[in-house]
C-alpha cells in the first residue's frame, strides 16, 4: 500500500489515464482539493459540465480505481459547474449567458432542428440551465417541436424586450413567435441578420449555462454574417452519413474555420435504422462519412443518432424524445451527446483566452 499523501493521490490520478473526459483529471485541472483525515481521503473534483445521471457512478468508479492503485477509502465529491466562455463578450441581456452554441448543417433536412431541441433538453435534463433560439428563418419549427400553442406569444417588456417562452423548463425563442401565424417571412439577407441579432439580444434570457442557436440550413451569406456578429463558444455541424450531406457539412466546417469559430464537433444523424419487424440494422444512408470528416478536420464525432420513427413522431407531437421517453435508449443517446458537447465546451473554454476581434460586416 502507498503512503497516502496529497502528492501520492495526485500522482495516481495522473497515472489513471482514463476519465470520461477524454483526458486525465490532472490535464483537465479537475482536482479542486484533497483532504486527508483520520477516517480517509476526501477528493473534491470540479467538473465543467452538468452530468447528474452519471456523477454518482463516476465518483464510485474513481474511488475503486484509486483503491486498485493502492489508495483505499477515498470519498469522491463531484462539483459540477459550467464555465463561461472567454469568447463571449457578456454584455446587455446576454451578460448571464455563459455559452452560445450554433447548431448548423450544410444541407437542409438532415435533422438539425430535431437534434438541437433534443440536445437542449438533454443538457437541461443533466442539470444545466438552457435556452434555445430558433433562427431558422426558412422553416422555423420550434413551436411545433415543443408543442407551444399558436396563441402563445412572448411577453413584451418595456416595449422593447421579450421574455422567452418556457416549455418543459426550456427558455425558447423563435423567429416564428414574432410573426402572425399565416404571414410568410420574406426576409432578405441583411434584414434577416439584423432581425436575428435583435431577437438574440433583446430576449431576456437571464441566467443560462448554454444557449443553443438552431441556424438556418446552408452556409450562405446570412450564416457568415451572423457568425461574425454573434460571439459564440463553438459550433456543431449536423450531417447524415449520405455523401451529399457530408460534402455540405464540410462546407459548414470550412465556414466556421473562416470566421474563427471553434468547431465543437460533428453529429451524425439518421446513421442506422433497425427494422421494427425483424430487428435487422442497416446503414440506410451509408456509413463512415461523418467519422472520416471529423478525422480530417481533427474534430470530435460528438454523437450518432439512429433513424427512428419515434424521434420523428415525438417532435411532430410536440414532445421531443428526451422528455417523451426519458428512460429510452434513444433519449440516452441524446444524453450521451449532451455530455460530449459539455466536455468539448469545457475544453474549448479552458483553451480560449479572450474574445477575438470581430469584423462587422454590414452589407451582404
Ligand atoms: N434521427 C431521426 N430519425 C427519424 N426522423 C428524424 C430524425 N431526425 C430528424 N428526423 C425527421 O426528419 C425531418 C427533418 O428534420 P429537421 O426538421 O430536424 O431537419 P432540419 O435539418 O432542421 O431541416 P431544415 O433544413 O428544414 O431546417 C423531420 O420530419 C424530423 O422529424
UniProtKB/TrEMBL annotation:
GO terms for biological process: iron-sulfur cluster assembly. Belongs to the Mrp/NBP35 ATP-binding proteins family. PROSITE patterns: MRP. Binds and transfers iron-sulfur (Fe-S) clusters to target apoproteins. Can hydrolyze ATP. The keyword Nucleotide-binding applies. GO terms for cellular component: cytosol. Pfam families: ParA. GO terms for molecular function: 4 iron, 4 sulfur cluster binding; ATP binding; ATP hydrolysis activity; ATP-dependent FeS chaperone activity; metal ion binding. Coiled coil: none annotated. This is Iron-sulfur cluster carrier protein. ATP binds at residues 106-113. Signal peptide: none annotated. Keywords: ATP-binding, Hydrolase, Iron, Iron-sulfur, Metal-binding, Nucleotide-binding. Homodimer.
